Amino acid sequence: MGRILAIDYGKKRTGLAVSDPLKMIATGLTTVASHALIPFLKDYIRKEPVEKIIIGLPLDLQGRDTDATPHVREMIRILHKHFPNVPVEAVDERFTSQLASRTLVDSGLKKKARQNKALVDEVSATILLQGYLQSVL
Which residues form the YqgF/RNase H-like domain (predicted)? Predict the structure, then answer.
């Protein structure tokens, strides 16, 4: 059984999360520099079976593309090229960053720790994946 890998892609940093093999629980994996994403994923997928990649698609409140959407669509194209046997699915990521920030506040982290944007990206990917897992069960 393969895992589902979630990507919260950004121009500078990319948050990653993975499901357990039973696809019930999302766990933050890491945050990587976006320019290092493909080599990181190649190494990860070589070690762990991944049956699907989901990637957050940034949309505005009306469901239209944002300034960041073309960058994500380009990354989807690149993912298809490098991982042709792994399905890639774009998932609406509206509000995941706000939910991630709120989750960090609610968890009791100090303000300095909550300002760690890499942590916010990883938590955003985790929230994106957990929502996806709940929607497909």
Answer: 2-100
Residue 105 and residue 103: Cα distance in Å, rounded? 5
111-133 pLDDT tens trace: 665 455 666 778 889 988 988 99
Say how many CA atoms lie within 13 Å of 52 toward its Cβ. 15
Per the structure, the count of domains in the chain is 1
Tokens 């960053």 appear where?
97
Q: How far is 45 from 99, CA to CA, in rounded Å?
A: 28
Structural domain that includes position 79:
3-136
CATH at residue 122: 3.30.420.140
| Cα-based torsion angle of the residue sequence 121, 127, 128, 134 in order, rounded to the nearest 10 degrees | 170
Q: For the segment 36-70, what is each residue's pLDDT rounded down to a tens digit?
A: 999 999 999 999 999 999 999 988 778 788 888 99
